[in-house]
Design a protein that fits this description.
Strand order of the largest sheet: 1-2
Distance between the termini: 13 Å
Radius of gyration: 16 Å
Strand content: 5-15%
Shape: elongated
Helix content: over 70%
Number of helices: 4
Number of domains: 1
Order of helices and strands: HHEEHH
């Protein structure tokens, strides 16, 4: 039987789901003029969320007990 992933990875996945699926944050970020590094806020939000999700997948891969066995 496989060991579950560490708690911090599971909490990170939960944070991923909230960040990716919370339309309130996405819609609030889609306001008019303000930009972040020259990008509209909504694009910066999507890029940051994508990087956050990708980092969690890499961290889960590195922490996977089956990979180390």
């Amino acid at each position: 039987m496989r060991k579950p992933l560490p708690l911090f990875i599971r909490l990170w996945f939960l944070a991923d789901a909230v960040a990716a699926l919370a339309p309130q944050v996405h819609l609030a970020a889609s306001g008019a003029a303000p930009t972040i590094f020259g990008l509209p806020r909504v694009i910066a939000y999507l890029l940051a969320t994508s990087a956050f999700v990708a980092a969690s997948v890499v961290a889960a891969y590195l922490c996977d007990p089956a990979r180390r066995a």
